[in-house]
Write a structure and sequence with these properties.
Elements (H helix, E strand, L loop, with lengths): L4 E7 L3 H9 L2 H4 L9 E6 L6 E6 L4 E11 L3 E6 L9 E11 L2 E9 L8 H25 L2
Antiparallel strand pairs: 1-7, 2-3, 3-4, 4-5, 5-6, 6-7
Length: 146
């Protein structure tokens, strides 16, 4: 069994702001080179069952996942299958933990790699690289919009 991928990032804002930037403002920080098509926007629909998707210039929508837990400003979880079918979704859980005055530790855990069988290890490694390139954009957005 492939271990869950865990990544933490500290941001200089309270959990309420970090949660809001991750969810309501995802389109302001999600890099367009981390999309499936020619995305003009990225959207996360709040609440359990909400969609995460991109919208292309021609109106095409690409589903990325579904919200499975919604507990603002503490916790968010969703299935994640950007560029793949929903049957190959992993599970992402994000916790927004106060870590000091005006600081939040964002704890990300991605699991479900067993769905990829022998490709679990390489797919996990690829996702680590994706998170590491994505999170600086999120950190910058929390500071820019604070």
């Amino acid at each position: 069994m492939t271990a869950a991928l865990r990544i933490d990032v500290d941001v200089a804002c309270p959990p309420e702001h970090a949660f809001d930037v991750w969810t309501s403002r995802i389109d302001t920080w999600w890099p367009r080179d981390h999309t499936v098509g020619d995305a003009v926007s990225v959207r996360l629909v709040e609440g359990i069952g909400g969609r995460i998707y991109e919208l292309d210039a021609d109106g095409t929508e690409h589903d990325w996942g579904r919200v499975t837990a919604w507990d603002p400003p503490r916790r968010l979880a969703y299935t994640w299958h950007i560029g793949r079918g929903s049957d190959e979704a992993t599970d992402v859980e994000i916790r927004f933990v106060p870590s000091g005055p005006g600081t939040t530790r964002v704890e990300i855990e991605q699991s479900g790699w067993e769905r990829f069988a022998e490709l679990a290890g390489p797919w996990r490694a690829r996702n680590r690289i994706g998170w590491e390139s994505l999170l600086p954009h999120f950190r910058h957005a929390t500071q820019r919009s604070a």
